[in-house]
Amino acid sequence: MKRFFAFAAAFAIVVIAGTTEVTAQRAKDDGVLRILAIGNSFSDDGMEYLPLLLDNMGIENVEVARLYVGGCSLEQHMAFYDQQKAPYQFYYSATKRFNAPKAKTNIRLGHPEANLWQKTSGVSLIDALTWGEWDIITMQQVSGLSGIYDSYQPHLNRLVEVVKRYQPHAKIAWQMTWAYSTDSQHGDFPRYGRNQQQMLDAIYASVYAMLEEVDFDYIIPSGTAVQSLRMSAVNNQPLDMTRDGYHMDLGAGRYTLSCVWYETLIKPYTRKSMMGNTLYTNLGNVHVTEHNAPYFHKAAKKATKKPFKPRKIKHNRK
């Protein structure tokens, strides 16, 4: 855990350390940051708007991808690996700066388009890990078990081991997810007494326990940013920034998470904050406009500074 906090405090720049026998041979100094998420619908929520945010900010040297199986737990990820299955949908967003061929795997995509998601199916964990050299790889627990640390192990240790075997130079990040809405009907909410604060406290306790056992380079404080918004004027009770009691709202919810992911993983590389970006959307129950966007920017920024401390967000319109 000391390693994580020291790294976060220093805002160290990610350095591409080199290539390995199992990765595509790429130049170390090509100037492109590559991020892969191993996740489920909650990583979809976190990453969906990242390409649009990058485009809005004029950033041309970041490449993002994600592996998706709905409701996938750490245990299930490892079961797919052990059984050599390829059940994932693979989403990929290219950068404008880099257009070299990837390694030969089962991943089949059309011509990459900058800052736009492409999707293909039938991909395995190994396909993604051997597609090229990744600088940051993220993971998370399925939401219903996110506050139960006993469910993390031994699967988390095994997943980290596999990732390090194929991508020894990659930094490892953990998405700390959010508690459900106050009236959520999710089947796992009773595990936490159907109490949002109890669930959030359990998530924090699990992440603290995890950091005592596993070295992570980044913690993505998605749950803290969401909880800060729930304490603020922009919250939309009883949905609490969700669209169904647990998945993020298609507007402000996903937008805020993209800001959190950017500020945590990409800002240390670009040295450019997402504060003041002008990406807006009329999707979802809570739209993002020039008037309320500062709430979401501030929630993301404050969470990255203090990942375990939600705070009421204030904004005075001029």
Give the SSE layout:
Blueprint: H1 2-10, E1 33-39, H2 41-47, H3 50-56, E2 62-68, H4 74-82, E3 88-93, E4 117-123, H5 125-129, E5 136-139, H6 155-166, E6 171-175, H7 196-213, E7 218-220, H8 222-230, H9 252-270, H10 293-305
Parallel strand pairs: 1-2, 1-5, 5-6, 6-7
Antiparallel strand pairs: 2-3, 3-4
Helix pairs in contact: 4-6, 8-10, 9-10
Could you explain how this protein is built, in words?
The protein has 318 residues and is of the alpha/beta class. The chain has a single domain (2-11, 30-305), classed as 3-Layer(aba) Sandwich (Rossmann fold). It has helices spanning 2-10, 41-47, 50-56, 74-82, 125-129, 155-166, 196-213, 222-230, 252-270, 293-305, and strands at residues 33-39, 62-68, 88-93, 117-123, 136-139, 171-175, 218-220. The chain has a seven-stranded mixed sheet with strand order 4-3-2-1-5-6-7. The longest helix is centred in the last third of the chain and has 19 residues, at 252-270. The N and C termini lie far apart (41 Å). Residues 1-28 have low confidence and may be disordered.
Uncertain regions spanning at least 5 consecutive residues: 1-28
| Sheet with most strands | 7 strands, mixed
Please identify the structural class as seen in this structure. alpha/beta
- Kindly report the average pLDDT value: 88
Domain tally: 1
Q: How many DSSP helices?
A: 10
Give the CATH H-level superfamily: SGNH hydrolase
What name does CATH use for the topology? Rossmann fold
Instruction: Report the CATH C-level class.
Output: Alpha Beta
Anisotropy-based shape: globular
Record field, number of beta strands: 7
- Please identify, by name, the CATH architecture: 3-Layer(aba) Sandwich
In helices, the fraction of residues equals: 25-40%
List the helices and strands in order.
Answer: HEHHEHEEHEHEHEHHH
Task: State which percent range the strand residues make up.
Answer: 5-15%
The CA-CA distance between the termini, in Å, is 41 Å
Biggest sheet strand line-up = 4-3-2-1-5-6-7
Which value, in Å, is the CA radius of gyration?
18 Å
